[in-house]
Amino acid sequence: xLRHAYAIGAPAWRIANDFFAEPVDAxxxxxxxxxxxxxxxxxxxxxxxxxQLRNAACAIAALRALDLPLDDTAIARGVAxxxxxxxxxxxxxxxxxxxxxxxxxxxxxxxxxxxxxASPARRTLAVYAALGDKDAAGVAAALAPAIAAWHLxxxxxxxxxxxxxxxxxQRLRGIVAxxxxHFEVAGALRAALxxxxxxxxxxxxxxxxxxxxxxxxxxGDA
Length: 222
What we know:
Elements: H1 2-8, E1 20-23, E2 28-33, E3 36-41, H2 50-65, H3 72-81, E4 89-93, E5 96-100, H4 106-118, E6 124-128, H5 136-143, E7 149-153, H6 165-171, E8 180-182, H7 185-195, E9 201-205, H8 208-221
Parallel strand pairs: 5-9, 6-7, 6-9, 7-8
Antiparallel strand pairs: 1-2, 2-3, 4-5
Helix pairs in contact: 4-5
């Protein structure tokens, strides 16, 4: 890729090479390149996982490569206000933190695990609903060390790609023990909320289908 970029005369900016993203303290990080730096709030309204910090850094690099007339305040406001539905979307239910994320592959699960390690410690319950053509075992293995209890939900409503909660449990044998199995995400989420201790956390993830079901339920609670 670099060879082709050089051949056509295109600039190639690489994170940790041409520009950098560096945590500063609990609320700030620094974007910098030679001759320029910004002190910024964390992305995703303070809930930024390490991967989101890199994403924000790359977005800033792209804007600078376009040479757009943006001032420091606009960049800081854009980073602070950016939010994507279903990506570490946060709710609170009777003192329990609920996070909804569409993460559906091992790479996304590793990013979620990184966020959990970097965030304040809470007993975390998982509501996991995967489609049949996904690497469910790889996803569960990435998150298993951070999860205190699992609620597995079926995705039959997703059509031919969906699987039952029992089928998902079979795929996770040897990785997830003593998981509760539910027909659908809504039931799994209700059960997890009932089980969660005050100041606990429920993480809903595994597919866009899972996120959409959870968001519908949580919006009804709002």
